[in-house]
Amino acid sequence: MTIAAIIVAAGKGQRAGGSVPKQYQHVAGEPIIKRSIIPFLNIVGADNVVVVYNPDDHDLYLQATKGLPLPPPVAGGTTRAASVFNGLKALKNSNFPPEHVLIHDAARCLVTEQEILDVIEALKLGHDAAVPCLPSTDSLKLSKDGKTIESDVDRATTWRALTPQGFDFDKIFNAHQSMDTDQKTDDIAIATEVGLNVALVKGSDLNFKITTARDFDLANHILTNKQADMNQSDQHQQHLPDVRTALGFDVHKFDDGDHVILCGLKIPHSYKLKGHSDADVALHAITDALLGTIAAGDIGDHFPPSDAQWAGASSDLFLKHAAKLITDKGGVINHIDLTIICEAPKLMAHKRAMADNIANMLNMSADKVSVKATTTEKLGFTGRSEGIAAQASATVYL
After folding, report:
1. Whole-number Cα distances in Å, 13 to 83, 189, 205, 213, 289
2. What is the dihedral of CA 325, 326, 327, 330, to 10 degrees?
3. In which residue ranges of the chain is CATH 3.90.550.10 found?
4. Is omega for the bond preceding 135 within 30 degrees of 0, making it cis?
5. pLDDT, tens digit, for every residue of 382-398?
6. Which member of 22, 213, 258, 294 lies 3.0 to 4.6 Å from 16 by CB, making a disulfide possible if both were Cys?
7. Burial 80-106, CB ≥16 within 10 A → b, else e
8. 56-74 residue pLDDT tens
9. Domain topology for 243-397
């Protein structure tokens, strides 16, 4: 599924003090907004991150986000909800509106990647929305006038909502469009009012919203100690190379046809392979292996079968995309090992050409690509000649 992120950074943050809005102030040497954006760049990609800001702070924004490959920011509104809706409208009017969206407060600069991934996983499971939460630990009291206590509140049933909050894009867009949201303090309040199904996922104590001067002190303390720990760890591990190995596996069944495509080569056969793209089972397995080396999901995350633009697509596009993601992280593909499993067609005469073709696609030496073919001795679906399976391993140096 396609996922975008909106970083809400249009407020003034006056309670925090300082000469500039809090999102542009620094903690542990970096602007708060920059620290908030980077985890989302790592997970959803720069093209899918929308920052909503106050145009009056344009110079501050440019300085704080210098070096980040972001699209142009979107002007915010007079309220938080209006700013979020401006971000949603920008995504709606883009060339490829997302299926899901994450909405995050720029003032939460210690958000963890695990929280982001947990919210995404809840959306993948079919929930309309998801929110990271922490259980209430203090005794809670109800006071309507702020002067006297009226009653207790059962803390066992109360939770502190954090961000990012994730949503089915169309449903949260329609909710914003159909109701007065100005008094809502977060988007989950909007979602629950229109009856969306909201999943609760575990949040992190570190993911607090910087609001006061004391919060700055706490964030500085946490990040400074974290960096010191990382530096100490680096001293112990700097002599060790970062070598990644991952596996990929794919299956496609046969359909009526006169050839199969394997490793980008057209090989005559009494059937073809059935699939949304060209069904190149070998390149699909290698692509998944490459994505695995950088923990970037699987081929379906990047090229969903539900997307019509990939119908009949040549699978070398998928392979080269995975290779570019590795290159963008400073990685080098060192070795590919592929095994194709089928009774027919016979592949002995094609293995060298397959290896050469893979090497050309990945701009690597052919002696670092291994292609093997085997059967399952007439056992299983491949033994019954119902389709072809492929498994691959990839080794990458980062």
Report:
1. 15, 21, 21, 11, 45
2. 120
3. 3-236
4. no
5. 999 999 999 999 999 98
6. 22
7. bbebbbbbbebbeeeeebbbbbbbbbb
8. 999 999 999 999 999 999 9
9. 60s Ribosomal Protein L30; Chain: A; (3.30.1330)
